[in-house]
Amino acid sequence: MSGVTVSAVLGSYNRAWFLRRAIASLRRELGGIPHEILVVDGGSTDGSVRWLARQRDVVLILQHNRGAWRGRPLERRTWGGFMNLAFKAARGRYVLMVSDDTLLDAGAVAAGLRAFDEAAAAGRKPGAMAFPWLEWPTQQRLWVRKVFGQVYVNHGLFLRAALEEVGWIDEAFGFTCGDGDLCLRLRERGYEVGVAEGARVLHNFHANTFLRAGNDLLGPADTRRLLEKWAHAFPGAGKKDIVQWEYQPGAISPGVLAVFEQRWRSPSFLAYAVPTYGRAWWAHVSRRRERDPAGAAGQTRAV
């Protein structure tokens, strides 16, 4: 046995400022819990790789995912392909999936583990626990995502043995829908996918607008793939049935919110963000509002 309780897993690409704070958040919340931190980097060019290599408590998996090598374009791995690299390497009983642009609120990991223990004590078979999250700054309330009316995990804890049993993430999905499909397959095997109340996560919507815009191009194909794959269980389902959410009680601690708020209000950051993100960010938000009047924001994993 490895003695590791929680393996924290995240992908990263060119988000050095956010990555450092995500790792600091993990270290804070995993303190006192036997753990490991695994980061799969997609070949960052902003200093992230050098910084990660100096962090002796981080397992770095470097998987170049963009550009060319020796005159040939590199094969692009999907989001599932990246996560599976770390999932399979994880030694913990539980796998904590977060993003490089997220911060854990106080007590999040402890609340997630408690939710697993309570479900098991009640005679249920927990396989995953979704952490309610706040999309900052586009949302004001915590939520969890749902597919075909059932909660799935954007950020949260998985039982590693359950991940292995269902065959990990389906790597056929380019960027979206893979997490929803994974939780559907967990349920198909008899596992419960619940919500860990008190396990709150803050997610930054504008960490890298251009990266998100490219990933969003994969969405339509992923949507079709998911609907086709699960047509036998959810006949007649459409796109609206896989873009659902449910608001949750609670709020992010002011001290955690302040990390992103101070970054956004910093004159030095504004001087960089306005020309870099401004027009693209506003265009992206406007398109989202047209498609989703309630203000639902998209997924922003970085690989």
Short description:
40% of the residues lie in helices and 21% in strands. By secondary structure, it is α/β, with parallel strands linked by helices.
- Which CATH architecture would you pick? Alpha-Beta Complex
Helix-residue proportion: 25-40%
Main beta-sheet annotation: 7 strands, mixed
Q: What separation lies between the terminal Cα atoms?
A: 31 Å
> Which descriptor suits the 3D outline?
globular
What share of residues are in beta strands?
A: 15-25%
Looking at CATH, the homologous superfamily is: Spore Coat Polysaccharide Biosynthesis Protein SpsA, Chain A
Number of strands: 15
Structural class: alpha/beta
Strand order of the largest sheet: 3-2-1-6-12-8-13
Task: Tag the structure with descriptive keywords.
303 residues; alpha/beta; Spore Coat Polysaccharide Biosynthesis Protein SpsA, Chain A; 7-stranded mixed β-sheet; 3-stranded mixed β-sheet; 15 strands
How would you describe this structure to a colleague?
The chain has 303 residues and is an alpha/beta fold. The protein has one domain (6-291): Alpha-Beta Complex (Spore Coat Polysaccharide Biosynthesis Protein SpsA, Chain A), CATH 3.90.550.10. The protein is built from 10 helices and 15 strands. Strands 3-2-1-6-12-8-13 form a 7-stranded mixed beta sheet, with helices on both faces. A 3-stranded mixed beta sheet has the order 7-14-9. A 3-stranded antiparallel beta sheet has the order 11-10-15. The longest helix is centred in the C-terminal third of the chain and has 25 residues, at 267-291. It is globular. It starts with 5 loop residues before the first strand and ends in a 12-residue tail after the last helix.
